[in-house]
Write a structure and sequence with these properties.
Blueprint lengths: L10 H36 L1 H4 L36 H37 L1 H16 L2 H12 L3 H27 L3 H8 L4 H9 L4 H24 L11 H8 L8 H28 L1 H4 L3
């Protein structure tokens, strides 16, 4: 018995290809604005001294509380000035530099520590696994904000302490994720074959395990960027982050909250910067995840 194949058999496949193409265009439409915002953020952070004609810490009391240019102010200060006459645009760009420094240093440091712990835990097993995982559980049980307050009380607020706090707060996520993947990879046939011929653990880890962990770690790093930016701003807002008087976005909001009824731009300009870069960082992280994760690649 034969089955007649009509011309409409290919329609579902055609619709699938069209739906995939539509999703790709939607993702691209979200990616391009996100990439543009991230690029502007990086340019403002790196070239803040060249782009801004003002010192972000210079106090000019006669120019205090000038509104933004689009709200009755002057183009000499496009985003206005704060309660001490400091230029808001200059402070916002230098605040981007602080956030960039925290992300560039703290995220790779946490990834390196967490990857090493997860690799040792998942590969060695036994007492090594138990001890390291208990350390991870202790870190997850200890409130990050309480740890930040303790560090600030002992060593004082500083950018170095913020980086240390964020690194010690986020490494455990990498450790758990890497350990889970190592437990799976150690049972793969190519790993068992390498071990059966007498390859040392160092060689097996370097050639067969670590290359398969890179995508997972990179995906988590991109997803952590927004969290790190928000956490740094939150610590600075509570005066347990960077030094008081610096140009951190959190400090700008903390200093401007008392003037909110008469100078609301002191709050919403750094607030918009935090929300905008956090949202675009999360969108970029989603795109990187879809691009690198083979389980999601066919769904793009």
């Amino acid at each position: 018995m034969s089955m007649q194949i009509g011309p409409d058999v290919a329609i579902p496949a055609l619709e699938t290809e069209r739906s995939r193409g539509t999703r790709n265009w939607k993702r691209l439409a979200l990616l391009l604005p996100s990439a543009l915002v991230v690029t502007l953020f990086l340019v403002a952070a790196i070239f803040a001294d060249l782009l801004s004609p003002y010192d972000p810490l210079e106090i000019v009391l006669p120019d205090r509380l000038i509104p933004p240019a689009f709200s009755g102010g002057t183009w000499d200060h496009p985003l206005g000035t704060d309660q001490l006459g400091r230029d808001i645009l200059a402070r916002t760009m230098h605040g981007a530099r602080i956030s960039l420094m925290v992300v560039v240093i703290a995220v790779p440091a946490a990834a390196a520590v967490g990857t090493l712990v997860g690799l040792l835990s998942g590969w060695r097993l036994g007492w090594t696994d138990k001890v390291l995982m208990r350390l991870v559980d202790m870190q997850l049980a200890f409130p990050a904000l309480l740890f930040a307050v303790l560090v600030a009380a002992v060593w004082g607020p500083s950018l170095r302490n913020v980086i240390l706090i964020i690194t010690l707060w986020t490494w455990s996520g990498y450790a758990r994720l890497v350990r889970a993947d190592v437990l799976s990879l150690r049972e793969q046939e190519y790993v068992l074959a390498a071990r059966s011929i007498g390859a040392p653990d160092r060689r097996v880890l370097a050639r067969h395990v670590l290359p398969n962990l890179i995508n997972v770690v990179v995906i988590l790093m991109t997803m952590e960027v927004a969290t790190v930016i928000l956490f740094e701003a939150g610590l600075s807002f509570l005066n347990v982050g960077v030094e008081a008087g610096s140009s951190s976005w959190g400090i700008m909001i903390s200093e401007g909250r008392n003037f909110m009824p008469i100078a609301s731009w002191l709050i919403w300009i750094p607030g918009i910067a935090i929300v905008l870069i956090s949202l675009t960082a999360m969108m970029m992280g989603d795109w990187v995840r879809d691009a690198l994760d083979p389980r999601l690649r066919n769904l793009r």
